[in-house]
What does this fold into?
Amino acid sequence: MGAAAIDLLYWRNVKQSGAVFSSVLLLLFSLTQFSVVSVGAYLALAALSATISFRIYKSVLQAVQKTDEGHPFKAYLEMEIALSQDQISKYADKILLYSNTCMKELRRLFLVQDLVDSLKFAVLMWLLTYVGALFNGLTLLILAVVSMFTLPVVYEKHQAQIDQYVGLIRTQVNSVVGKIQAKIPGAKRKEE
It folds into this structure.
């Protein structure tokens, strides 16, 4: 993750993090009430209203003051925004690598290359059926955004206590998994 994203999630610049957090949350709450098309249209109308109003304001100001500053958005209009072939190739390579990795892992899980991993995956999918019955996708996305902006700060402030409890949980889980693996024939992990 980039340094800018980490600074954003750890609230290093409170104003910037607050603006991003509230904007994303407002967008997600809007999507719970309105369709994607409506939200997109309203956002575009709001942006157009702001830019048109600013353009008219600057034009009137230039006429009254008899100055010739030019178009207020000239610097942005002259800015290069096209993606280069190298950038597209780099992102396509990353997407291809991620897709191939996911397909290989799913093949391994569905074709039961490792019984324990496939059973873990089955339990995860079973638990997700309950999560899906309780929440819709947007609610989960809202919870994920709130978690992204709160959990890093909470962990940073209470790292010692959290690490202690996570260590205890990890020990218990490893103990239970070891007992289960010992009782299931053919479920023992290969030593790597």
Notes: The mean pLDDT is 89. The chain is about 80% helix and 0% strand.
